[in-house]
Amino acid sequence: MSSSSSSSSSPSLPAPELPLKPVPGDWGHRFFGPIRDRLAYFYSEGRDDFFSNRIQKYKSTVFKTNMPPGPFISSSPRVICLLDSVSFAVLFDTSKVEKRDVLDGTYLPSLDYTGGLRVCAYLDPSEQKHSSLKYLFMTTLATRHNKFIPLFQTCLSQLFNDLESEISTKKKASFNTLSDAMSFNYVFRLLCDNKDPTETKLGSKGPKLVDKWLLFQLAPIGSLGVLPSGLGFLEDVMLRTFAFPFFLVKSDYQKLYDAFYDFGGSILDEAEKLGIDRDEACHNLVFLAGFNAYGGMKVLFPGLIKWVALAGEKLHKKLAEEIRSVVKAEGGVTFSALEKMVLTKSVAYEFLRIDPPVPFQYGKAKTDLVVQSHDAAFEIKKGEMLFGYQPFATKDPKVFENPEEFVADRFVGEGEKLLKYVYWSNGRETEDVAAENKTCPGKNLVVLLCRVLLVELFLRYDTFEVDATVFMFAASVTFKSLTKASNT
């Protein structure tokens, strides 16, 4: 992986008058078509090849297909794929697309998993409750911004100590396991007035409780990847014949709810001032903490470590030099210092571009509309489900040079102009979070934490080596070595 500078080509904007074409592709038989497509998607082709093969087949980045889970869990698996940076952007326009109950695409987990409520992530911005809940989340984060960096540094210190200890005794260390524990600890302490979750009834089981709760919701749209491809149909039957029943995790969820109810009182008090029922606020808090924050970090941190590790020692040296010189000049790791680390910032954005932690976006057309790609226009009918696979939009070769390559300084200098094509947060990187849109309320915090992770890593170490594979939705990272900083 190169970390050398690469000038990016100017994006091809849609021509004023593009040919109007019917959307190519087919959904097939209402029952067998979705099964055909999901077997190809998970097993015979694999996710990326599934999309790239159809782009080649239809000579179009916009086409019809089915998305999992399909029968018997989802009654409406038909979607229109938007796989370039131009067409993908319509998914952020809530005047054209509805975001009601589409978080997991063509499938909505039982509301039992969220206390019988449609939490904020399932709401469309046109619904009044969406604005009040998202405003609550935004103010919650805003009032805690001074805790973001010091609390994360404390949690990272324990993570690195544990990594060193495991490598010392076992010659390797599972980063995911340690990162999950660190992430849950950080999220809980941030939202619950610095209460350590291990000092509550959760003990050290918090991450495992959330993992099980997440798995039961997301299993129908994922793959465990533990069976040979020829036996994939067995996993398909196991995961996608019936949705997993909530009662199997009911007690786990109740423990999480009770912990946040007991120690998230300051947030719940604020919710009541906004007219939000305390019980409803707590279920939303559990979802924010468990699904949005911790669930995102399960993917985010291993992915970042993987890509930086693959970029190699040359990039590690450049990052270490920048980070240490700025921290020395600024007298510590501050918001101001982080803004001066241009390469570190670019690395975080490049990771979010090449491997966005949430790769899927969905929305239903609110009216009949026309969607443009780079070279054609397509009529979409009201009620049709639009689907975007984010890594294809953010690796659009008509926007980015060498789109499949991790270019560490891609967003340095003039490259910053390309940030409007980085879509990882359910919106453009250049757009602000607002109660009226669906942009992730923690968008800026995510970028900040990625940068602080790199800073703390290279303040302690000169370089490191990992082995990386994929499990479910995330990179699975095992540290093989950590070389301590030569100047300490």
UniProtKB/TrEMBL annotation:
The keyword Manganese is annotated on this UniProt entry: no
Cofactor(s) needed by this chain: heme
SUPFAM superfamilies per UniProt: Cytochrome P450
GO biological process, one term: sterol metabolic process
InterPro entries: Cyt_P450 (IPR001128), Cyt_P450_E_grp-IV (IPR002403), Cyt_P450_sf (IPR036396)
Assigned keywords, A-Z: Heme, Iron, Lyase, Metal-binding
Transcription listed as a keyword: no
One protein family per Pfam: p450
GO MF annotation, one: oxidoreductase activity, acting on paired donors, with incorporation or reduction of molecular oxygen
Binding locations of heme: 440
UniProt record similarity statement: Belongs to the cytochrome P450 family.
Protein name: Cytochrome P450
